[in-house]
């Protein structure tokens, strides 16, 4: 991911990732680049086991999406560094925030996640069994609407911190949306199902208040306060129904 020149950051996780979208992404990318705590083979084994379970259930295999891997690994690393377990980090940022911050093209309608903490010596089979022991996790594993996944397993202090993200990716922006927008920025969505018609877009703040939107696929930075972030949603229609696809988060340059 290309970061603004002012967004250089080192990895210091004692107090979690930095606040502010640009600083947050910069520190996440820095931490992912330098960490040696990830269990890549166990991640691959969990991916294979998940698709094996889906095949047994008669549902389509998941794609492994690199941006979701980064989001899952970022959360696993933070949990490992600060010794906690949860779907949100200690600052309250959840899986959807991480996806929308780190994937600059995604348009997604649904997201789920599985989180587990195990002994560091747990085998891939034991990891999968631990996840599958929870009924909500089992439903996530075979949910027929999910299309993509990302995996992060970090080892620290005798524990494995496991994060599995599952998402329904319904489309992408044609070009990645920059973290910081300046002036007018075109939004060109590509929706996977051709029976959907693009109906417009909305930009909301973190509390869900609408900042801007319209049917012309063009965003202007004046919609975003200099200290705020905007959450892009793309609206698509099927007959009389309108659906919301969650896109990237942006801030003003």
TrEMBL record:
Identify the InterPro entries for this entry.
CAP_dom (IPR014044), CAP_sf (IPR035940)
One Pfam family from the UniProt entry? CAP
Name of the protein described by the UniProt record:
CAP domain-containing protein
What CDD domains would the database entry show?
Answer: CAP_bacterial (cd05379)
- Which intervals hold domain SCP? 48-164
Species this protein is from: Henriciella marina
